Automatic annotation (TrEMBL), chain A:
Isomerase is among the record's keywords: no
One Pfam family this sequence matches: Lys_export
Name of the protein described by the UniProt record: DUF340 domain-containing protein
Keyword flag Transmembrane: yes
Segments crossing the lipid bilayer: 6-22, 34-52, 64-87
GO molecular function terms listed in the Swiss-Prot or TrEMBL record: L-lysine efflux transmembrane transporter activity
Keywords annotated in UniProt: Membrane, Transmembrane, Transmembrane helix
Lineage summary: Bacteria, Bacillati, Bacillota, Clostridia, Lachnospirales
Source organism per UniProt: Anaerotignum neopropionicum
From TrEMBL, chain B:
UniProt GO MF annotations: L-lysine efflux transmembrane transporter activity
Cited Pfam families: Lys_export
PANTHER family: LYSINE EXPORTER LYSO (PTHR35804:SF1)
Keywords: Membrane, Transmembrane, Transmembrane helix
Chloroplast recorded as keyword: no
GO cellular component: plasma membrane
Protein name in the entry: Lysine exporter LysO
Transmembrane segments: 31-48, 60-86, 146-165, 172-194
Amino acid sequence: MWKIFLALTVGFLIGFFGFLKEKQIKINSRLQTLWLLLLIFCMGVSIGRNGEVIRSLPVLGGKAFLFAVLAVIGSILFVFVLSKLFLEKEEKK
Amino acid sequence: MSLAIFVILVLGILAGIYMPVGISSVLDQASSMMLLILLFSVGIELGLNRQVFAQVRKLGFRILLIPLGVILGSLFGGAIGAIITQMQLKEGLAIVSGLGWYSLSGILLTNAGNPIGGTISFLSNVFREMITFIAIPFLVKYLNSYSAIAPAGATAMDTTLGMISKHTDGKTAVIAFTSGVICTLIVPVLIPLFL
């Protein structure tokens, strides 16, 4: 977990103290998409190479997927309503 | 973007299944490096936006509403899942209590003597992370940027933070990170409540 904080903080300081030129900022923004897609690919590989996951998918995958979808919908619903009630009002004023 | 992500995810999974173990193990290890590089890049972008923290500070304690909504919403979904699948209520709640942190949720349930629940929880939280990647652009477009943090749960502090940051703004990214940290701290407390 400390590595996550470190990576974010070092990046933040570099951005905050203006070490980067306009052009480098643009490159960073583009590279971000590349890192993101590479990360997603590598995460796919991690799942695919995990034999236990692939073996249990046909039996338990359906239930697992149902719980994932319901948890996601529930979270979206609650956060959306709470943000409409308590967070967004002021922004519009 | 969602389609591209879905395709890349599927390609990754297929590659993981069929490629030689040597290569896939290198890529597996590369993913944590990728994550750190991505977060470094997100950090730079946050640093450039000097108003970010002032904007977030204005929300004050209300920022806690986001992880609260994530937790309550997930449990609500888990309860409905338990009803549909005719599982015990507490098992359903335990499955969703991982909030996307699949490694921990799977192990905790398995160690508590429920290997099937553990596997469902593990898979379910893996799915949650995948769904999050695909859902974020839609949520930003059709609901609001706060709701894009919701599916991410605990992963909002690491794997899905880049995706959130890319599709929203600096303020939302900081809120997402905070919510992700809180969720991550809560998961080890939440799951044992339902074992």
